[in-house]
Design goal:
14-stranded mixed sheet; three-stranded antiparallel sheet
């Protein structure tokens, strides 16, 4: 969960913040030091020498550079001498002097007028920077020194760094022009010192001097738009202090009647109150005495100053910092009240959407996965599917001891990661996001409207979904609503819960989580970027971001038929999704592969008459074309490869292809969006207005996740999982348990007094979870299962104490609820469930004592089948036991019952007891009605009775159950063998 950001200007050491002075007052003028006068004198000497001395020296030594008359044709035929070269060099020097003089005039005019940003002299980057520094030093001791832009704080900075292209213009054509910026490589100590100095300046100016300054948002000049980041950079010396300006002006009424609600959304003509240490010529410090400000603007500032007491102080800024940026944070609604009886989520221990790993004690679990609910849900769902697939392949494709295969029990880092997935996963959030996006696509298709280009999706802390569009796309279809402006579509969580599954292609499969900002989770649509997305930072930090992106795209629920190409890394990530992830060794393989795919997609779009994949996804071919493709390149490309890559990605967004490229800090040609990952886990993109708590998958956790998936692979060799139960029960008379719980069928507990009615449901659910995990349950996993939306630590501890007291102790005084060396909760062997007994009986019958004794085998299998009374926890209360969706026991139990029924049927058929075999198979079918093996054995056992009518009736029952899909091929083949006339009966019925 991201930490709330506070601004230095609003912090206070007292119990309550000191009130800010909102009345315009004269600015206290800093006293000029002797050094200032020395600098001014030297600047004057240098300016005089360059502006006046250079032309005089040229005129005296070499004369006027231009000829007295027009040159003739014979001039071209003259011999080139040393004198000719000297005259050419003289002309170049004269032009350089003229350019520098123009720079000086432009800078002096801008400094004296105090209005607007200084104009740029074409081709005069270094010259204009030198002129600006000299003019600033000269005027430092004058009355107009405060009007310099950007002022002495910018000495030594590049001109391009002070006049970056604004992101506001990129709202319509994002990233089509170079977004070049200086990347500061400051140490942590320097940053801390800078922050401390900023706080001291702000507190000293606001509290001690009471100064109040104002800035008026300037109209755009070409592609340059004002932004809070650039204002802070020019007037506070650090663009990251834009939060302070935002906090001073948040929710105050502007001259046009609107309010500042997002740091990235400002308009020309708005008034901004500035921190007390702000400097620069565009500041209006005393409206009544400012000669360059009209009376109308003075009145606007006076009116605005009176709204200061209504401004909201404190709190974290919501915006991103860049003016009218590509990606801005949506306004948040108040979170809905919790359900009755539901404990509030607190910083001590949060639910899936609360990212618990950022607060309190994480009990050693990986915090990165605790704070990534969508990633964790995708990994957990994919892992469950892999384990179910392994179970079914083992049951249907093998014989003997492989039947009833138990999945492996993870240990070490893999166990910690599995627990973190169970705690952090938010499958309900994934389901709502997927249904909402598909529902939007279906509604737009019904209205014959195209899908709008979406740059990002924001999931608010209250569950609302905000889509940020590239440009306004009209009114959204109900129940979607317009958000804070025309480029935001919003869907409330309550409306999203009303969506049903729709048969339409996923409209925005390229959305992937990057991190959180102010309790909102950002999903950036990498597929929509018109060019490359670059990620700079340390190699290990970049690798953690790349692994997170790849893992989420490979396992999430809102991406159909996604292809993820990994270049230069990630060959060990393939087990997560072998059908989605592919690995290429280098750039040459990438260019060959992607060039061919780019040509193919362009041709397919042209042939279909679509302008982009978005229009194709809502058409009749939505399920066969326009599959998304994301390319992740972790290695820094060479200059030549970077240019080829930029050319390849120029048309990528239209084709449904996205590129995320790692860099070592250098600018990447063709990069539309530039991001940086810091060593502290912050994802920065100032020109996008983003400063996130990054979502990461570090190397150690990545290896543990891959280990979980690899262990679940059904194709593993002899070292793979076996069918040995994790907990064997003593099934002799001497092994009678003290506490016996019936889970297969209705839930019953024998050996314990019934707890009080108010806590009974929670205690029963907690005990069921522990019984299904004899290897141990992490306390965080238990609390997350019982309270998916979060719970305080004291409430969880109170429940555990009640559970210990309810279970009691064994006769030797040992508590029946204990804790192992890793801190996980375990049950004593005296607490047993019928599922434990069922597993133990089947194991003993097929691999234990029953192997050498037919009589023992028959008795054990019969006892096992008697325990089966229905599905697992058949009468569980509504709204509880939702954690069962993460379990594979719902797949294990039917397979175990089917294996038991098949083994008992085989036992009876060996002695030609067909009726006994049919009885055993029917008992197993009540719990595992979809197991094809049971029906096959039932057909064979019925055939053994030599009753054709009975076999015909069974075949008719099977045909009726199959419905429109028809019988499976193997069942048809078996019927052809046992009952050749069965098709005649089908034809007659038809």
């Amino acid at each position: 969960m991201p930490r709330r950001r506070t601004t230095s200007s609003s912090s206070s050491t007292g119990s309550s913040p000191a009130p800010r002075n909102r009345t315009p007052q004269p600015v206290r003028v800093r006293r000029r030091s002797f050094g200032d006068f020395v600098k001014a004198f030297l600047a004057f000497v240098v300016l005089a020498g360059l502006v006046v001395g250079v032309p005089l020296a040229l005129a005296v030594t070499v004369g006027w550079p231009f000829p007295d008359g027009a040159p003739g044709l014979d001039w071209l035929q003259r011999e080139i001498t040393v004198e000719t070269f000297l005259r050419i060099l003289t002309v170049i020097v004269w032009f350089a002097w003229a350019q520098f003089t123009a720079c000086v005039l432009v800078e002096v005019k801008a400094a004296l007028s105090g209005v607007g940003v200084p104009g740029r002299v074409p081709g005069a980057g270094p010259s204009q920077l030198l002129a600006r520094q000299l003019v600033a030093a000269l005027l430092l001791v004058g009355a107009t020194a405060a009007s310099l832009t950007p002022g002495l704080s910018q000495l030594g900075h590049g001109l391009e760094g002070n006049q970056k292209p604004s992101v506001a213009a990129a709202q319509q054509t994002p990233g089509l022009f170079a977004q070049q910026q200086e990347q500061a490589a400051a140490t942590a100590g320097a940053l801390a010192e800078q922050a401390g100095q900023a706080a001291a300046r702000a507190d000293g100016a606001a509290a001690a001097h009471g100064d109040t300054k104002y800035y008026r948002i300037q109209p755009p000049e070409g592609r340059h738009h004002d932004s809070l980041w650039e204002i802070a950079d020019r007037h506070l010396g650090d663009g990251r202090r834009y939060h302070e300006i935002f906090e001073l002006n948040k929710d105050r009424v502007q001259p046009d009647g609107s309010k500042l609600s997002e740091a990235s959304l400002i308009r020309p003509g708005w008034i901004m109150e500035m921190p007390g240490d702000a400097r620069g010529g565009e500041l209006v410090e005393m409206p009544d005495e400012a000669p360059n400000v009209s009376e109308q603007v003075q009145q606007q500032i006076h009116d605005y100053a009176r709204t200061g007491d209504q401004a909201q102080g404190g709190g974290g800024a919501q915006g991103g910092g860049a003016g009218d940026a590509h990606v801005s944070l949506p306004e948040q609604r108040p979170a809905p009240a919790p359900d009755a009886g539901q404990e509030h989520t607190t910083p001590t221990e949060a639910g899936p959407s609360g990212q618990a790993g950022q607060f309190g004690d994480s009990f050693g679990l990986p915090e990165a996965l605790l704070a990534a609910p969508l990633l964790a849900a995708g990994l957990l769902g994919a892992l469950g599917r892999r384990r179910r697939q392994a179970l079914w392949q083992s049951a249907l494709g093998s014989i003997g001891g492989r039947r009833g295969m138990e999945p492996p029990t993870p240990s070490g880092d893999a166990l910690d990661v599995q627990d973190a997935l169970l705690v952090g996963a938010d499958p309900e959030g994934v389901r709502l996001l997927d249904r909402s996006l598909r529902g939007l696509a279906g509604a737009l298709a019904a209205e014959s409207r195209p899908l709008p280009v979406v740059y990002a999706a924001w999931l608010g802390g209250n569950g609302d979904l905000h889509l940020q569009l590239a440009q306004p796309a009209g009114k959204p279809p109900a129940p979607w609503q317009l958000g804070q402006d025309q480029t935001f579509w919003m869907l409330a969580r309550a409306d999203a819960e009303g969506y049903e599954d729709v048969d339409t292609a996923a409209p925005y499969p390229g959305l992937v989580s990057l991190g959180t900002m102010d309790d909102s989770r950002l999903l950036l649509n990498l597929e929509s970027v018109p060019g490359l997305v670059s990620l700079s930072g340390r190699e290990a930090d970049r690798a953690a971001v790349f692994a997170s992106v790849a893992a989420e795209l490979a396992t999430n629920g809102w991406s159909d038929r996604m292809t993820i190409t990994l270049v230069g890394f990630g060959d060990d990530l393939t087990p997560l999704a072998p059908s989605r992830i592919r690995h290429l060794d280098g750039f040459e393989d990438l260019f060959e592969t992607m060039s061919a795919e780019t040509r193919q997609r362009r041709g397919a779009l042209g042939a279909a008459g679509h302008d982009s994949v978005l229009t194709g996804r809502t058409g009749p071919a939505q399920h066969t074309r326009w599959a998304p493709h994301l390319v992740l390149l972790a290695a820094q490309p060479s200059d030549e490869d970077a240019l080829r890559l930029a050319e390849l990605a120029a048309d990528a967004s239209r084709l449904g292809i996205g590129y995320l490229v790692g860099t070592e800090g250098a600018e990447l040609p063709g990069a539309a969006w530039e991001m940086e990952i810091t060593g502290e886990g912050r994802l920065l993109a100032p020109l996008l207005g983003l400063e996130l708590e990054a979502q990461l998958l570090p190397a150690a956790q990545q290896r543990a996740v891959v280990e979980l998936f690899a262990d679940a692979d059904p194709e593993r060799g002899p070292d793979g999982p076996t069918n040995t139960p994790p907990f064997l029960v003593d099934i002799s008379e001497q092994g009678r348990p003290a506490v016996y719980a019936r889970l297969v069928g209705s839930y019953e507990i024998i050996g314990l007094d019934a707890p009080d009615g108010e806590r009974s449901a929670q205690l029963h659910e907690a005990l069921a979870l522990l019984l299904l995990h004899r290897e141990g349950v992490h306390p965080r996993v238990l609390s997350s299962a019982l309270w998916p939306r979060g719970v305080t630590q004291d409430v969880r501890d109170a429940l555990l104490e009640r559970l210990r007291a309810w279970l009691g102790t064994d006769p030797d005084g040992t508590p029946r609820l204990g804790t192992d060396a890793t801190g996980r909760l375990t049950l004593a062997k005296s607490v047993v469930s019928d599922l434990d007994v069922l597993r133990s009986l089947y194991y003993e019958a097929t691999q234990g004592r029953g192997v050498g004794s037919r009589q023992v085998r028959g008795r054990l299998l019969t006892d096992a089948l008697v325990l089966v009374r229905g599905p697992l926890l058949a009468d569980r209360p509504e709204g509880r036991y939702r954690w069962l969706t993460h379990e594979i026991v719902d797949a294990q139990l039917p397979l175990l019952v089917a294996d038991t029924g098949l083994a008992l049927s085989e036992f009876h058929l060996e002695k030609d007891r067909a009726e006994k075999a049919i009885e055993a198979l029917n008992a197993a079918l009540r719990t595992a009605p979809a197991d094809e093996r049971l029906w096959h054995e039932l057909l064979r056992a019925t055939h053994a009775t030599d009753d054709p009518d009975r076999l015909h009736a069974l075949a008719a029952d099977l045909i009726g159950r199959s419905g429109a899909r028809g019988l499976p091929p193997r069942t048809e083949a078996l019927l052809d063998e046992l009952l050749p006339t069965w098709r005649d009966g089908v034809a007659a019925a038809g």
